[in-house]
Amino acid sequence: MPVHYSGDNDGEHLRVCPQGYTCCTSEMEDKLNQQSKLEFENLVEESSRTMRTTFVSRHKKFDGAL
Fold first, then answer.
1. What gap in Å lies between CA 6 and CA 23, rounded to an integer?
2. In the prediction, which pLDDT does 38 show?
3. Tens of pLDDT along 11-31?
4. CA distance to 19, 24, 42, 53, per residue, from 7 (Å)
């Protein structure tokens, strides 16, 4: 199915999507930005949870050894 581009959406105002004729809008970019930020924050939280659990566990073992 061909995509028809509108002259109103020349992409000059976009920050992430390619400049020039595009089907991407500022709203789509904003949603992509929000989704990317959420996914990144979730990955960092998940990764740090494992590290935090390891530190807490080792801290308890160290305190018990004193």
1. 8
2. 97
3. 667 777 766 777 778 888 889
4. 13, 13, 38, 54
